[in-house]
Amino acid sequence: MPRKKFRYNQRLEPASERSFQEYIQNQPAPQTTRTELLRLIRGGEDTYLELKIKLSNSEKIAKGIVALANTSGGTMVFGVTDNLRIEGVRNPEEVQSELARICREEIYPPLLPLIDCISYDNGRQIVVLDVEGRRRPYRTRDGRFYLRVGAEKREVSRADLSDWLDEIRPLAYENIPVQEADEADFDDGLLWTFASAFDDEMLGKNLYQTADFLKKDLLLAIGGADDFMPTVAGVLLFGKSERVAELLPHFKVTVARYAGENGNAQLVETNEINGNLLYLYESVLRFIERYCDLSKDKPRSRKSSAQEANQIIRARGNYHLFSVREAVANAIVHRDLAIRDMPTRVLIFDNAIEIVNPRRTNGFAPPASRAIRYGIAQKLNPQIASIFSKREYGTNVPKGGLPMILRSSKYFSGRRVEIQTMNDEFKLKIYGA
């Protein structure tokens, strides 16, 4: 078994970019001693330690740092030979500066390492880099993921990547590259209609360069001049619906109509919808409108419960149009993409529409579930939310978020919207008039 990973001192990453400088200035000096470091080196390389004689290839160093960070963190020491002999480095200041640059520019998301320089009585100096994997998964700039197994690093294969992501459940899942996708998988009509709405000269200049536009303008793809790997967000937003269903089959919406007031009633119709986000949004709304009336204004009068009970055929439910649109948009945009075994579900009952969305409970409820009632957004997918909510994308989503849904639906139907968060699900139940 590999020995317990070595740590100099514990630290927390800054909460925001604005506090970065303040964070750096307030960091305590490292508590490393030469004795501790010698003990670490004498044990040789393992899962949490990598030894380097010098820093000569930044690309290989980036891969090694990514592997350590993705394997719960670890330490990289410069100036030590394979025979565990301390030779030191000639220019420790340059090594430290280059390591900081690699962690900042060659790794995504950027790492905040702890870099230390240790001097010995014979004048030799070694550089020690300590990383923590708080924001896994980490990848190199060209979109490759690495793990450390024993004293070796290995690339996570395409076959293993999906299972590994399911295990660690990263928050920033929308930034994961979809390695199987290419330019032909994108809906040019949707993408360039969106682009031309901001710059109508693009069509006249015939700038139909999908890969460059997604990489350089929208930041929805990665890769060098000859490489192109769109992110999950890019595929979900602008992919061809049939290809989205093949590339990302788990990100679907299940819709169902029940002939009663709960899920125990007879199932009338159910369907699974998969495709790009615009297609999902429009298809879900069409299904709802098949069984419900959506109105902008509050009904003038409502029948009593006794009158409804005497009806042979119950009237269609009537719901506030903007509340339903916003609720469907929120479910699609704020879905927890890391939870792949539970689809988004839209359930239509005689008296209500219930939307059940995958959303990890740990860290979200109850404080965050209370905050969103007051318009304090808890966005898991900020890139998706930014583009999806724009009129240029074609969704025409109402404004106001959850506070608008709560306020408008209660005024429209006279009943409060029910919200529940448990078992990695966020449930929203809107009652009709």
In brief, what are we looking at here?
This protein has 433 residues and is α+β, with helices and mostly antiparallel strands. Strand 4 and strand 5 form a beta hairpin. The protein is 35% helix and 19% strand.
Q: What gross morphology would you assign?
A: elongated
| Classification by helices and strands | alpha+beta
Largest sheet: 6 strands, mixed
Query: N-to-C terminal Cα separation, in Å?
Result: 64 Å
Could you tell me the CATH topology label of the largest domain.
Answer: Heat Shock Protein 90
CATH architecture descriptor name of the largest domain:
2-Layer Sandwich
What is the C-level CATH assignment of the largest domain? Alpha Beta
Q: Write out the strand line-up for the largest beta sheet, numbering strands in chain order.
A: 12-11-15-16-18-17
The tally of helices reads 16
pLDDT < 50 runs, ≥5 residues: 1-31
Instruction: Tally the beta strands.
Output: 18
Total domain modules: 3
Radius of gyration: 27 Å
